[in-house]
Amino acid sequence: MIELSHVSKRFGDETAVDDISFRVPKGKFCALVGTSGCGKSTTLRMINRLIEHSEGDIILDGQAIDVYDPVKLRRRIGYVIQHTGLFPHWTVARNIGLVPRLLKWSAADVQSRVAELMHLLSLPVDEFAHKYPHQLSGGQAQRVGVARALAADPDILLMDEPFGALDPITREKLQDELAKLQSRLHKTVLFVTHDMDEALKLADHLVVMREGRIVQQGSPLGLLQNPVDPFVESLLGGLERGLKQASLTRVKDHMTSMGPTLPAQSRIPGTFSLRQALSMMLRDHSDRLTVVDQHDVPVGELSLRRIIKEAQLDNGNPRE
Amino acid sequence: MGTRVSNSLSVAPPHKKAPPWLWPLLWGVLLLVSVVAMPIAESLFRWIEPDARQVIYDRAELYVLLGRHLFVVGIAAVVTIIVGVAAGIAVTRRWGGDFLPLVAQLASLGQTFPPVAVLALAVPVLGFGTLPIIVALMLYGLLPIVRNTLAGLQGVEGEIKMAAHAMGMTPTQILRQVELPLAAPVILAGIRTSVTINIATAALGATVGASNLGDPIISGIVNGNMAYVLQGALTIALLALTVDSLFELLQRQLRSRISDS
Questions:
Q1: Is A79–B181 a contact, with Cβ atoms under 8 angstroms apart?
Q2: Residues of B179-218 as b/e, b for ≥16 C-beta within 10 angstroms?
Q3: Where would a tag sit more exposed on chain A, N or C end, judged by fewer CB atoms within 10 A?
């Protein structure tokens, strides 16, 4: 668990982070969102003591971070940054094995852990283990960055705009993989991004920062339904807010269940979002879709009226 | 994306190139021939100096002079590398940052001071012989090493150093495993410049009684014997070329290990 209470950071006269408090419960994914210069990266770096905080308490698993030796603390915390920071003179395998080697694991343990992680991040060992970072594409390099952060199996993972420099397609793919990875590994993740869509997609908890302060925090749906001020609302996409909300809701939660005999119309898997359903309706000029399960067997129906009505319901009683 | 290969190195055309060790070997052999078998070329030197009583320098064997020359340059190089690299490392650490401008200035001062002047100043203090020339070479060779050590270490991307910190490496581990290996090609280039310059500069030692490959040159100038001058100059040039091409070989190997595109 990561817990910050009344944490501030001052650089000379300038206050970069001003009295912020939030917590990331064990196994949860928290996104720090804000425009550049709002103090979100500074906040992240205070947690692994790359930057020392000026005031307040930062507590990891019940212990204030000040009592740890910074070097040992960092070896327990995974850290991923935008341009990967991979060592250009080391192979992929050596880069990934860095922290286990620092922790003095045996060579055999390091090797098997590296292979395990490469497998986990879909980097075939034979193809990639001996490559150098400059021989990788942006997406591959970032996978190596994530593998390196996970190498010593830390409970806590800090990610500083890890996908910010990638092209949209690669970014989306890696976001999906990270979500899948998180559903298996249940790390306590603090994720910094300026991309609200990314935050909405991945996080259980959002913390919106502006000029060093927290303006609002809460669940993605909670924020979408009740943004506290125009700034948060504009971050959430203004008029697009409705669509963003729809993209967080799954089709199967809103369909009308029906038997397997349904009229011929476009089919949508129940795991897709309402946003995708709306898009499909617009594309196919229809106001009804057949919902199917993973075996393509019809299980229900979703109508435009129902989507709109559900949105009303959601807004009436926000679900936390 | 799993199959995307962005490595232009791996598809280099099949192009026959001279092996990299060819040049050091060639210059090295020529150097050896010139120090042991200079008399072979007697007729050539006779043609240059038809009136001289003697055209082949024989007051000392050239290979002995070569050995002394290498000794002087070698001692100076070892000291300069240790001092220069250490100074470069020290002032790029957080605790040594205050001394960065001072060290950079001292090192450039060393090079603006002509070696002859250093010799003139050093002889009264250190006496005649090998010591003053070693001191002069050390001062003169320090700048390229300090400058390149600074450039190399400062050239390591901040993000890589930050990542190294964030992974839990200690400052010593970062220096040894990350900064120095990444700066090595630039530092080596500085050492190469320093040593190559000093091979030529060391010849001045002959003027203060440090016998080395400068002897035939000085003696040739004093006696008006161009053949002596040529023999000394030729041997020094071949030595410089040999050492320089050895450094080239070393740098090439380093680069192929640390190739950041």
A1: no
A2: bbbbbbbbbbbbbbbbbbbbbbbbbbbbbbebbbbbbbbb
A3: C
Q: How many angstroms separate the CA atoms of A19 and A42, rounded? A: 13
pTM of the model: 0.81
B261 shares contact with chain A (CB less than 8 Å): yes
Q: Name the A residues in 81-120 with CB < 8 Å from any B CB.
A: 81, 83-89, 98-99, 102
Q: What is the largest CA-CA distance in chain B?
A: 79
Q: How many CB atoms lie within 10 A of CB A109?
A: 14
Residue A296 token pair:
């393509």
From the list A89, A88, A108, A90, the residue with the least C-alpha distance to A100 is A108
Summarised one tens digit per residue, pLDDT across range A6-22 is 999 999 889 999 999 99
Best to test chain A binding among B1, B162, B170, B182 (most A CBs inside 10 Å): B1
Positive/negative CA dihedral, A249, A253, A256, A261: positive
This complex has an ipTM of 0.81
- The CA distance from A311 to A49, in Å, is 43
| A36 contacts A194 by C-beta, under 8 angstroms | yes
Q: Give the closest of B5, B164, B259 to A134, CB-based.
A: B259
List, as ranges, residues 113-152 from A with C-beta within 8 Å of B.
122-124, 127, 131-137, 139-140, 148
The per-residue pLDDT for B13 is 53
Inspect the interface and report whether the beta carbons of A85 and B169 lie closer than 8 Å: no
Distance CA A291, CA A259 (A): 11
Cβ burial, residue B225 (10 Å; 0-12/13-18/19+): buried
**Residue A295 pLDDT:** 85
A197: left (phi over 0), alpha (psi -120 to 50) or beta: alpha
- On chain A, the residues whose CB falls within 8 A of the CB of B159 are 81, 83, 85
Identify which of B1, B168, B257 has the shortest CB distance to residue A72: B168
Question: Residue B88: which of B161, B140, B148, B138 has the closest Cα?
Answer: B148
**Residues whose CB falls within 8 Å of the CB of residue A253, separated by 6 or more in sequence, listed in order:** none
Residue A318 confidence (pLDDT): 42
